[in-house]
Specification:
The chain is globular. Helices cover 28% and strands 23% of the residues. The chain starts with a strand and ends with a strand. By secondary structure, the chain is of the alpha+beta class. A hairpin with a 3-residue loop joins strand 9 and strand 10.
Length: 505
């Protein structure tokens, strides 16, 4: 259980340190517009879900807290907090003097709404289970709030960093993309579907003298070559969307810097629909897990940025172990043997993937490896928004190759929140009382030290044995930026933070 923590209400948050890169200018400069290149458009219906379309979240909205690089929560709209001794409630002190872009003051009512909004089953939101654990609200004035919990949860601060604080009076307009009213450093000027977002400085932002930038342009460039060209020519100054196979070509570009976030940017995985025969047999799923050459994917698809791994955990996670990472290696002979033992020498299956260059390269690598053991897959390229909707609605075909997140925060969050892993309702349609017990005990208990490690290991062991999600590579979250850009960071959910960013040089 976390102890009471207090920070001066006027102190700026202690942000996660940026990744290695060019040395920052000693004197930040005000003004200018930053252009960020992305490969997928903003999807309003996914506003409350973490996905590839979430980069802009922290530009428009704030969150209650933000983790540092040790997973210690730091203040944002909550300035301090105190758990009750039994872990069944938490008292939040909220920042005063914060206003939405339309001038309305931020109060405890906005936090109450944010939690209830994520509890709404009509919202696509991965941390709904954690939000649902909040069963009571005690408002003590505009800037103090007590949240009462049905039971202990050890990932409440994951919720606080994930949960954007939206305008409770205009949430339906936000959900359709008509109007995004937040308390963040930039306000939305225009969203042009297929083109991008135009943002301008929020002049009454609660952090004094921030942001430095006058504006941000988020431009959709789905073609990899065009995206790289925009960075090389200076038409854009920041991107996290350069496919891995294109990264080596720009490592020595004179006006660009490449840097990697050590916490990982999610993971590439092979999803398996256990309701499609013969994939309900875990022996078949294990055969698929032994068939894939993770090291080749790391090198050829991700350009060497990341970590080949059979488990979802980056090295920064307390659930990481070298034994888990190497549990499945590339062994096509063993894979063929497992298939034969299950009564199969050839399978023909569809495989959905997102029709972006990096995701297509991943699917093609998986396709090649599976063919070597007699599993012939037909690729089904799908646009990102549709693929995400299939993921959420459990309407995937037999196989799919995509990326997932949620392993970079508290380990329990992955199995209670991420769509591929959710113990109660996952995309693979996998159900197991033993998996549910392991997940629930890891999530709701107060264990620490060796006991907590043992609970996490039970979850990992189940994932490896059942292989309904076959992790392949921990992705390096690679930032490509102009050398004149300083101070850009990401939070643990890959929300871009430009509070302290500026252009100089």
């Amino acid at each position: 259980m976390l102890p009471a923590v207090a920070f001066p209400a006027s102190a700026p948050p202690a942000w996660v340190a940026p990744p290695p890169g060019g040395a920052p200018d000693a004197r930040p400069k005000r003004g200018g517009t930053l252009t960020v290149a992305v490969n997928t458009d903003f999807t309003p219906s996914l506003l409350f879900a973490q996905s590839a379309q979430s980069l802009q979240q922290r530009l428009i909205y704030n969150t209650l807290t933000r983790y540092d690089d040790r997973l210690e929560p730091q203040p944002e709209l909550a300035t301090s907090w105190e758990y009750a001794p039994d872990g069944r409630s938490i008292t939040l002190e909220l920042r005063s003097g914060v206003v939405f872009h339309d001038g309305r003051p931020f109060t405890a009512d906005d936090v109450i709404f944010a939690v209830k909004n994520l509890q709404n089953p009509l919202r696509a939101a991965q941390l709904r289970a954690t939000a649902a654990a909040v069963t009571g609200f005690e408002r003590r004035g505009d800037h103090q709030l007590v949240l009462r919990l049905a039971h202990r949860v050890n990932n409440l601060f994951d919720l606080f960093e994930f949960m954007i604080i939206t305008d409770r009076h205009g949430v339906e307009d936000a959900f359709t993309g008509k109007r995004l009213n937040g308390t963040g450093p930039f306000r939305l000027v225009e969203w042009r579907p297929g083109v991008g977002l135009s943002l301008k400085r929020h002049d009454t932002y609660w952090q004094p003298d921030r942001p430095y930038l006058d504006g941000v342009e988020i431009r959709v460039i789905p073609q990899a070559d065009a995206l790289v060209s925009s960075l090389r020519t200076g038409q854009s100054q920041l991107s996290f969307a350069v496919p891995g196979r294109n990264l080596p070509a720009i490592e020595n570009a004179p006006d660009l810097t490449l840097s990697e976030y050590a916490t990982g940017g999610g993971a590439s995985y092979l999803g398996v629909n256990t309701s499609v025969a013969p994939l309900g047999d875990k022996t078949v799923r294990q055969a698929l897990a032994w068939a894939v050459d993770r090291e080749r994917i790391l090198k050829q698809v991700l350009g060497g940025y990341g970590l080949a791994s059979a488990t979802p955990w980056p090295k920064s996670s307390p659930a990481y172990s070298e034994a888990g990472r190497t549990h499945y290696r590339h062994d096509p002979g063993k894979a063929r043997e497992l298939l034969r033992s299950a009564g199969h020498t050839r399978l023909d299956l569809p495989l959905l993937h997102v029709n972006l260059p990096g995701e297509t390269a991943l699917a093609e690598a998986v396709q090649y490896d599976l063919k070597q053991i007699g599993v012939h897959v037909t690729l089904q390229p799908t646009d990102p928004a549709t693929a995400q909707k299939h993921l959420i609605s459990q309407s995937m075909p037999a196989l799919w190759a995509m990326g997932h997140s949620f392993a970079q925060v508290q380990p329990s969050t992955l199995a209670v929140s991420a769509y591929p892993f959710n113990e109660a309702r996952n995309t693979s349609r996998f159900r197991s009382p033993a998996y549910t017990r392991a997940v629930r005990e890891a999530w709701t208990g107060s264990a620490s030290g060796a006991e907590a490690n043992a609970l996490r290991q039970r979850v990992t062991d189940t994932l490896l044995d059942e292989a309904f999600v076959i992790d392949l590579v921990i992705r390096g979250n690679v930032q490509v930026a102009a050398k004149k850009l300083h101070g850009a960071t990401l939070n643990k959910f890959s929300y871009l933070n430009l509070d302290d960013a500026y252009l100089a040089g």
